[in-house]
Write a structure and sequence with these properties.
The protein has 307 residues and is an alpha/beta fold. Helix content is 33%, strand content 26%. Helix 5 packs across helix 6 and helix 8 packs parallel to helix 9.
Amino acid sequence: MQLLVPDPRQAVRLAAGEARALGGAPRPQAWTPGPGRGIWALEKDGALIGGARAEAGVLAGLYILPQWQRRGYGRYLLRALARQPGAPAAVAAPGGAAPFFARLGFAPCADGLWRRVPPVSGAVVWAQTQLRRALAGRPAPVCIDATCGNGHDTVFLAGLGGRVLALDIQPAAVAATRARLAAAGADPARCRVVQADHARLAALAAREGFAPADGVMFNFGWLPGADHTVHSRARGSRAALAAALHLLAEGGALTAVLYSPGHGPQEEEKQAVLAQLTGLDEARFAVTVHPGHPGAPLPVLVRRLPI
Ligand SMILES: C[S@@+](CC[C@H](N)C(=O)[O-])C[C@H]1O[C@@H](n2cnc3c(N)ncnc32)[C@H](O)[C@@H]1O
């Protein structure tokens, strides 16, 4: 299998195929060399399998010929592209191919382009594991993801078998979470994704039928791949946590993942939230702070004790 620059005959076939797949007229010129353009043909034993093209460093098209589709060649082509000099760093809004790119770890960013998002951290895995254990006895838990970001936690919560309300202050996060849920095959009737500040959590949860909630997840900080100046802050985070704890069902659980480079607003948020959670009434809540590692994201579990 090899990646080559398409010859003129291949360019015509790729353009015709792309036009058939997307609608519109074939544009062979898009598949021929030009300034700022990257074009690749995937060949196997001399047969054309498909191709990819990039404009100004953005993947603008990836096409596998019909007879080769559904055999993993799209995934192969994308991986092979990543190893090429001048490989595209982002994907133009993929439209109908969104589930394909979401499955491969891409998510929409604030500028409308799709990029690979980093895999979930150990802290997130710990938080998810604790929550799963805490809710094991509830077949259809009512859950809230109060900072849905790229949707990893929302998909996890949807997988617990109940209903999920996901919110985030940024439209890009809402789009990423919806795409990730669709790619995971989650039941849309059980998942509600809303663009909202979690300052409105109490009112939203009541309006959407998510109070009381069995499980609530917070993963503070910013949206990976987006504007890092948009992030959660101590005051708002404490208020949202207070609202979440108030609507937590007896026996329910809440997790929070905290970040800090050791100074600045994120350190302030981490310390404020830790003080809030470790200061909760021991008769009503059991709090576990993961021992953590210096500089690593810090997960916390809060269980509401049955009275
Ligand atoms: C680390 S990301 C969350 C990751 C996410 N849980 C996941 O699984 O991909 C933090 C998110 O919190 C969101 N956020 C920050 N302040 C917020 C607020 N006041 N209300 C709701 N979301 C907020 C950011 O937009 C960002 O998407």
